[in-house]
Design a protein that fits this description.
single chain; alpha+beta; nine-stranded mixed β-sheet; six-stranded antiparallel β-barrel
Length: 297
């Protein structure tokens, strides 16, 4: 995701920008990636590709990305509201589980009849938002998921996320999500179709921040397309996390303090000169609106 010719990164919307060399940033992204992926899931739904037979032929398609979150003893999947609305209202939805040691060859099914679907915000202009939703999970699904994954505790990190001043820490940003364009069909096994779902986890440039009466937002710039050896579209990343790498610097050496969830993606712009703008819900939206909705029930 690194823009060609860019050797330094900074959060340009901050009043006191902090800079970091690209080589240092990529090393720190690699350190943070296993934890970030541990909190990340993808949604898979079945679609009919041929209904000319008595039993329609089905394929699996990527339907978005989400972040496993917890607050007040409850657990859920945080994503864009339009992702939730495009999932089946009832029946099974597959979850892609990314692990600390890579992908997991599995079938994890979430029954939509037994989850609680919350629209936290939905506007009329998809490019402006709000577009934020939460799938609250029943205890049995939480127990099953915790075999493979961990949940990002919003309550535990709320005070820190809302209080870090820009001048105290350099905050660099990472996007992590599944990409539909990167889906590959695998060799069938036991008569069943199989698919490989892949995505991205890399740095991007946060270029601006804004607020309305209820939510806050970030805009970021990402590279796309053949010149960068990246997908043309980030379709499938809707609902994915924007992560703050909170860094410490001592004697010219950067170290990773913590990766904090700082945004949820909901919109990508048209492709212009190999780049797209991505719109995210921001820190306040997550640690106030989402945390309250999940913790208070």
């Amino acid at each position: 995701m690194v823009p060609v010719g860019v050797d330094e990164f900074e959060c340009r919307w901050q009043s006191t920008p902090m800079k970091i060399q690209k080589s240092d940033l990529m090393r720190l992204v690699e350190q943070a990636a296993p934890g970030i992926l541990d909190w990340t899931v993808g949604f898979v739904k079945a679609v009919i590709i041929d209904d000319s037979q008595s039993e329609p032929e089905m394929d699996a398609v990527l339907a978005g990305t989400g972040v496993l979150v917890a607050a007040g003893g409850r657990h859920g999947i945080l994503t864009a509201d339009h992702v939730i609305q495009n999932l089946p209202k009832t029946g099974p939805v597959g979850l892609i589980l990314l692990g600390r040691t890579g992908g997991i060859d599995h079938q994890f099914v979430l029954e939509m009849d037994f989850v609680q679907k919350l629209t936290l915000g939905r506007g009329v202009d998809e490019s402006l938002g709000p577009d934020l939703g939460l799938i609250v999970l029943p205890a049995k699904d939480v127990t099953r998921l915790e075999i493979w994954k961990t949940f990002y505790n919003l309550t535990k990190r709320k005070a820190k996320a809302l209080s870090i001043p820009p001048e105290d820490h350099a905050i660099s940003w990472v996007i992590s999500g599944l990409v539909g364009e990167m889906t590959e069909k695998m060799t069938p096994r036991d008569g069943m179709k199989r698919f490989s779902f892949k995505g991205i986890c890399g740095p991007l440039l946060v270029t601006s921040a804004r607020k309305d009466t209820t939510f806050d937002y970030f805009a970021a710039e990402v590279n796309c397309g053949k010149p960068f050896d990246l997908p043309e579209s980030l379709g499938g990343c809707s609902g994915c996390g924007l992560w703050q790498l909170v860094l410490d610097e001592h004697a010219g050496k950067w170290t990773l303090n913590e990766a904090l969830l700082g945004g949820i993606a909901f919109y990508q712009s048209a492709l212009i000169d190999g780049r797209r703008n991505i719109e995210f819900h921001g820190i306040s939206s997550i640690y106030r609106n989402v945390e309250e909705a999940l913790a208070q029930g």
